[in-house]
Amino acid sequence: MPNSAGTPLPTHGPVRRLLGLARPRGSRFALGVLAGAVATAAGTGLLSLAAWLIATAATHPPVAALGVAVVLTRALGVTRGVARYLERLITHDAALRTLAQVRVQVYERLARIEPIRRFRSGDLVTRLVSDTDATQDLLVRGLAPPLSALLTGAGVITLGVALLVPGGLALAAGLLLAGLAVPVVAALLGRATGRRQTAARGELSAALVDALHGAPDLVAYGAMDRAVARVERADAALTRAARRDAGLLGLGAAGTALVAGATLWATLLLGVAAVEDGSLGPVPLAVLVLTALAAFEIVAPLPAAAARLGAIRASGARLFDVLDTPPAVRDPAGRGHLTPGPLQVRDLRVRYGPGEPWALDGLDLDLAPGARVAVVGPSGSGKSTLAAVLFRFRDPDAGTVRIGGTDLTAVSPDAARRMISGVPQDPHLFDSTVRENLRLARPEATDAQLWDVLERVRLAADVAAMPAGLDTDVGVHGARFSGGMRQRLALARALLTDARLLVLDEPTTHLDPDSRNAVLDDLLTAAGDRAVLLVTHDLDRLAEMDAVYVVVGGRVVQHGTHAGLLAQDGWYRRAHRLPAASASV
Fold first, then answer.
1. Membrane-crossing residues (predicted)?
2. Model's pTM, two decimal places?
């Protein structure tokens, strides 16, 4: 069944899909499971052989008769340690390789910008870290131990039946109860707890990130206490879920111990009865009883793994929520490219969900090479959505966007961004230096080129006055720079590209009037013969534009030059009169 984007929805549960991710390393996991079975079998055999050795020694046989058993005891001890090491090495190596593959898939999915905006930042971090680690938990703790227990348990039951059929059957019943019934009960009880614990971890992470990033505003409005209370509630919920999880682990361990004790007593009583009627000797009795005691090492990890299955399932579901998020931008298989030419937008329609209103509803726009065009309109009219389409952050739901006659969606997003660059409405500065933030646009740029572009956006003097110059750290999200400086640095980065079309979405929002005019002058000058599409709510300086498009309700309601639009009755003329009317009051 496809989703609204036409992408087929998965038909398997998250646990099965997580296991499917490990399929390329199936042979490696099989080798690890075999090593684990050998280690467990060696441990059980060591105790069984020790029982035979002690019981036989009590009969005072010749020393030579015990020599082979002594050598085998040492061999089993060494085998157990080596096999356990190999099991951990092989299974963890395979699990970590699978985990690396999962992380690559998640990062590749998030490299398309739109999924990041669909999740809260703190919750997304939890999905990337804790929920992704669920793959490793499932493979190391949920897959290898049950398979090893199945192999070793079959051998132990065979040995018990060979010694005494009733005793072997009692041992088989005990192992089935401890290795199947107790884990099933633990898994059923842990399903809801696992979901709550996973959700609480995501909520706590989101609350912490929101409180830390929003601390200045929270303090300014006296809301920090409420934010801290939210963190405390999320922490309390996670603590409660963790306590329930610990209780389930204890319950599983207690159930296994209870079944092990009952099985040991049953085996002992059956063995004693067999010795009394002469069907079993004292030495086999000792071997049978101590084998039964050692056998429960095989199933001891299973209840804990089963109790964790609910949390693993919930984490897997949250992980696949990210991987299954339908892309808002399609990447065509072909390697097409754009050639310089006019921009033509025809009947462009975009909306953010099947039941939501159209953000763009049949928009038409033309931009010739080297021309300067402004797009204005009220807030929420669709201006930034148009910029997002041109930046290839979204694909049209209908209509076409062509550059030089080539459909923008027919080429890869990277190829489109080599032709179209600019500044989004909320540009991001990385926690690095001024130099490295600029070199994102042109890695080979020299310092002279960087200073030149900083001069063009009137930021060179500010950077030169800083002690480290181009090596100045801008801080997280550019926190060490003012809003205007962050915007100008983003403008400088855009100018470093070789793109033929610059899309500037509110480029002077954070600047004072004098700086706004100066930066706009420098920007238009620096653009040279490149086409410029200016998306703005600022109605000043529009007389310098070759054309102005007025967008209201996702449609172009007026189009023309500044003077021509002022001569017409409509939104543009009314918007220009409002500031004058307000100033006269």
1. 29-55, 61-79, 147-165, 171-189, 248-273, 285-309
2. 0.66
